[in-house]
Design a protein that fits this description.
The protein has ten helices and 16 strands. The chain has 401 residues and is α+β, with helices and mostly antiparallel strands. Strands 1-2-3-4-6-5 form a six-stranded antiparallel β-sheet, with helices on one face. A five-stranded antiparallel β-sheet has the order 7-16-15-12-13. The protein is globular, with a radius of gyration of 26 Å.
């Protein structure tokens, strides 16, 4: 269990009580056993005869076997997630009783009473604070304001967790604070719809997870109009939900791909372009499935990240390309859909896009996205033959106090 910081020694401990940890591991083992029952068995002798006598029956049996394999993989991943949660540990930093009393006294000065204060170092080496407190008078103090006070008292830059109540009320509540990230980002978007359609087949999302990751997702549904929009919307929404729930990116891609493949005769295909940025370290990870090139702009230098694979929804196992980079203060990430490159191919050629990006002196991500889109529309003389989307993320280092 976690330890009260006033209690003493520095040690790594499970964040779950021992009983709960063992129970979770037992559930994980049961799910693994269930996954084994779904795994494809060896083909029986005479399968070739079935093929000759009844091809439809053979195809149905093969499809059933493929679905069982996919179910087994999903169950296996669920078991791995449960095992990972059961084995998570935190390092409880020691704090003297005197120090604890100093913090409690300082907060009493603003009518805040505290108990059960935990100072925890997570597995990534980042600090987290768990504190139970209540307001002893009618004056209202927000969770953010208490976080600012704790930052000064503990000499750690802290921010309030997203699920904290806004105000500290008159009843005991547990509040969580996390170490503030080193970087912050701004985002920008520019879009144009295919000239014969009313709705874009491209969809995107920006979101930040509790682990301090800024993620951008861009999906281009095959074709255009309502069908393409529905496919790309599903990809974006499911990816966001899976990642926020704690699934590994590769597993989330596999599960979404299975959903697209299961469409049967109604072919469902979409690209996936994902960029995940660690706001503490600046580490950037691109996951590309059938998507266009992405670009990193550092002043006037441009790094192109390309992939040569096919979209999701074609094969049972999607072909993912994963590329890592490290971003620094002032870098920009540019993600584009196929329509941008198609427009350039009607003019100066798509290979010139890195030069166009590098020549830009704009700093606002929204203005950068708009300038790229306008340039491409000019190149195709206003004839937008495919949906066009540009996403831009700018990253800057936070100023030290």
């Amino acid at each position: 269990m976690k330890k009260n910081v006033a209690d003493g020694n520095d040690s790594f401990e499970s964040i779950l009580p021992e009983y709960g940890r063992r129970k979770l591991l037992t559930y994980a083992d049961s799910i693994r056993d269930l996954a084994d029952t779904f795994r494809e068995t060896k083909k029986e002798a005479g399968a070739e005869d079935i093929l000759k006598e009844d091809r439809n029956e053979y195809i149905w049996q093969q499809k059933l076997a493929e679905n069982k394999n996919l179910m087994a993989e999903h169950l296996q991943e669920m078991a791995e997630i449960m095992t990972s949660v059961a084995s998570e540990a935190r390092c409880c930093q020691p704090m003297s009783v005197r120090r604890f009393r100093q913090i409690a006294h300082a907060l009493r000065e603003v009518d805040i009473q505290i108990k059960n204060l935990y100072l925890i170092e997570n597995e990534l080496g980042r600090m987290e604070i768990s504190i139970s407190m209540k307001n002893t008078k009618k004056a209202t103090l927000s969770a953010d304001e208490v976080g600012d006070l704790l930052s000064v008292l503990l000499n750690i830059r802290l921010i309030s967790a997203g699920d904290n109540p806004f105000f500290v009320g008159d009843e005991w509540k547990t509040f969580y604070y996390i170490e503030e990230a080193k970087f912050h980002v701004l985002t920008g978007v520019a879009k144009a719809v295919k000239e014969t359609e009313k709705i874009s087949g491209d969809n995107y999302a920006f979101f930040t997870t509790g682990t301090g990751n800024q993620t951008a997702i861009l999906s281009d549904g095959m074709g255009s109009g309502d069908k393409a929009c529905a496919d790309s919307t599903m990809v974006v929404e499911l990816m966001e939900k899976f990642l926020e729930a704690g699934f590994q990116t590769e597993t989330a891609v596999q599960m979404i791909n299975s959903s697209l493949v299961s469409g049967g005769e109604n072919t469902n295909m979409s690209t996936l372009d994902l960029c995940s940025i660690d706001l503490y370290s600046g580490e950037c990870r691109f996951v590309k499935v059938g998507s266009s090139s992405s670009y990193i702009k550092r002043q006037h230098l441009v790094d192109r990240i390309s992939a040569g694979n096919l979209p999701m929804g074609i094969f049972q196992k999607p072909d993912m390309e994963i590329v890592g980079r490290t971003l620094v203060d002032g870098d920009y990430v540019i993600m584009v859909s196929d329509g941008i490159l198609d427009a350039l191919s009607q003019g100066i050629g798509e290979d010139m896009l890195p030069e166009v990006i590098g020549d830009s002196n704009l700093e606002n991500p929204g203005e950068i996205a708009g300038s790229i889109l306008n340039f491409c529309i000019h190149q195709c003389r206003g004839h937008i033959r495919d949906d066009m989307t540009v996403l831009v993320i700018g990253i800057w280092k936070k100023e030290e106090d």
